[in-house]
Amino acid sequence: MAQGKINVQTENIFPIIKQFLYSDQEIFLRELISNAVDATQKLKTLASLGETKADVSNLRVEVKLDKDAKTLTFSDNGIGMTEEEVDKYINQIAFSGAEEFVQKYKDKASVIGHFGLGFYSAFMVASKVEIITLSHKEGSKAVRWECDGSPNFSLEETDKAARGTDIVLHIAEDSVEYLEKHKIQQLLDKYCKFMPIEIKFGTNERTEKVGEGDDAKEEKIIEDNIINNPTPAWTKVPADLKPEDYKNFYRELYPMTFDEPLFHIHLNVDYPFNLTGILFFPKLKGNMEMQKNKIQLYSNQVFVTESVEGIVPDFLTMLHGVIDSPDIPLNVSRSYLQSDANVKKISKYISRKVADKLEELYKNDRADFEEKWDDIKIFIEYGMLSDDKFLEKAKNFALLKNTEGVAKTMEEYLEQIKPLQTDKDNKVVVLYTSNKDDQYSYISAAKDKGYDVVVMDSPLSAHFVGKLEQEFKDTTFTRVDADTIDKLIKKDEEIPSKLSEDDEKKLKPVIEGALPKEKYTVVFESMSEKDQPFTITQSEFMRRMKDMNAVGGGGMMGMGNLPEMYNMVVNSNHPLISKILNEKEENKQKDMTKQATDLALLSQNLLKGEALNKFIKRSIELIN
């Protein structure tokens, strides 16, 4: 029996530790199974090159749990190791067997691990580790290696009938959670769900009827519990897949999601980097944060992370699906990934592919695209706000939908409204609503003028309209309740006022007395007699700043934190205003004013609590 000390090569080990040091204890399972899968893949490569006579028809990895013995074992029937290879690849930590194999057979082999520290992650949870291995090479003898986590090891010949390697972890006292079946099953589902070689973990039992009629009996069937799908949809050629295959794969990825995706993008590129994957467009809800962290990042079918923010453009994190690239290092450090040159190229490529796919869908079936618009618009708005290259493409298919449900691109829409909605300063004014029901009276007033109103009701609308104003010069967006209808789109013509300056001075304190203090500013405007006597408006600029602040990035000079402020616009030409002015009895004048201003407040859902209760009582008295 040989004994010795593990040779840690300082000049090699520190760069590897610096780049690949694991921060998550459970990663040991991914690393050990990756090594086992590598061992089978190496054997398959050698067989394809005629360099081994070993049978590769039934390659498999098996995970075995023995709670009584406190062991967790990872077995494979792959390439195995000789005593010399154990000494070389295990005892000399920094020299990676996978790395050497890749160099020798590059362009022929698909190998997961490139770093010699993977095996040693076992000591994060084990007090002692054994390796029992038999090489595929003819005449090889099985060997057993053992180490308790110190630099000391033993290496001796042993008995092993089948080719391959068993890694036996003697679980440490502080890691007994890894002796629970449900815990191992959970980690296998997380990290190994799509590894390219069949992985077995225990067995499943089911009953099956055998025979017919009265002779039928139920028999117990014991089956291997295969935890993974070695050939997931993203590894296949798109031409070989049907729409139902993509839907099934989506359900496989997200078994607890019941909505079907709207459409998908199948990624497949081999230059200047290798990348495969499938991205799905889910039906996006209003809360953007709920949609994130649903893209799973893989490297050669080995799970890396689903926290891809900073790795792909932020707006793409709202998509679901899988990205797989051997050019993405198998490491959980996001800061490392974010600075990796290949990752940056991949990020730009995916963004471009998504934009191309959306434009293709728009051009090929605009009616279907319009039907799905409400479910994807928040994603497209997010992309246009955060990625200038995406913005340039998206201007061709991003839609504005009016209150009648008619959708047009920005250029189409501007062309439509230009004749009627151009103001005296030659700016085209796009009127929009954030809520068709709450702002119904304002929308109605706009339509009476022949104006069109678009619906902008996403959480990003305040930011998005600002971006569109930057992109489309001589265009401005104004919410339909930001001012009276004649001031929303200012024209040259003016309506004379029936009130003199003295009349306005007399009326102003009466109206101010009927309103809550500090929140409302009384403004007199000369409008049509048919317009409302009192109208509540809120400055487009101030309201937009507050809306932008609510979703981040709009607290310009602290304006996002200012209290709500409104204008109470008085129509100086409405008969009711003249009636209030000419009322000689002071109490009656106050009651008329209070009732009329309360109606204006009520129309905007601004009349609440005690004030609302008093309004109801007063209204009943007036009816009686």
UniProtKB/TrEMBL annotation:
<dbReference type="GO" id="GO:0140662">
    <property type="term" value="F:ATP-dependent protein folding chaperone"/>
</dbReference>
<feature type="binding site">
    <location>
        <begin position="96"/>
        <end position="97"/>
    </location>
    <ligand>
        <name>ATP</name>
    </ligand>
</feature>
<comment type="similarity">
    <text>Belongs to the heat shock protein 90 family.</text>
</comment>
<dbReference type="GO" id="GO:0005524">
    <property type="term" value="F:ATP binding"/>
</dbReference>
<keyword id="KW-0143">Chaperone</keyword>
<feature type="binding site">
    <location>
        <position position="81"/>
    </location>
    <ligand>
        <name>ATP</name>
    </ligand>
</feature>
<feature type="binding site">
    <location>
        <position position="165"/>
    </location>
    <ligand>
        <name>ATP</name>
    </ligand>
</feature>
<keyword id="KW-0346">Stress response</keyword>
<feature type="binding site">
    <location>
        <position position="31"/>
    </location>
    <ligand>
        <name>ATP</name>
    </ligand>
</feature>
<feature type="binding site">
    <location>
        <position position="334"/>
    </location>
    <ligand>
        <name>ATP</name>
    </ligand>
</feature>
<dbReference type="GO" id="GO:0051082">
    <property type="term" value="F:unfolded protein binding"/>
</dbReference>
<keyword id="KW-0963">Cytoplasm</keyword>
<dbReference type="InterPro" id="IPR001404">
    <property type="entry name" value="Hsp90_fam"/>
</dbReference>
<feature type="binding site">
    <location>
        <position position="76"/>
    </location>
    <ligand>
        <name>ATP</name>
    </ligand>
</feature>
<protein>
    <recommendedName>
        <fullName>Chaperone protein HtpG</fullName>
    </recommendedName>
</protein>
<dbReference type="InterPro" id="IPR037196">
    <property type="entry name" value="HSP90_C"/>
</dbReference>
<feature type="domain" description="Histidine kinase/HSP90-like ATPase">
    <location>
        <begin position="23"/>
        <end position="175"/>
    </location>
</feature>
<dbReference type="InterPro" id="IPR020568">
    <property type="entry name" value="Ribosomal_Su5_D2-typ_SF"/>
</dbReference>
<keyword id="KW-0067">ATP-binding</keyword>
<dbReference type="Pfam" id="PF00183">
    <property type="entry name" value="HSP90"/>
</dbReference>
<dbReference type="InterPro" id="IPR003594">
    <property type="entry name" value="HATPase_dom"/>
</dbReference>
<dbReference type="GO" id="GO:0016887">
    <property type="term" value="F:ATP hydrolysis activity"/>
</dbReference>
<keyword id="KW-0547">Nucleotide-binding</keyword>
<dbReference type="InterPro" id="IPR036890">
    <property type="entry name" value="HATPase_C_sf"/>
</dbReference>
<feature type="binding site">
    <location>
        <position position="35"/>
    </location>
    <ligand>
        <name>ATP</name>
    </ligand>
</feature>
<dbReference type="Pfam" id="PF13589">
    <property type="entry name" value="HATPase_c_3"/>
</dbReference>
<dbReference type="InterPro" id="IPR020575">
    <property type="entry name" value="Hsp90_N"/>
</dbReference>
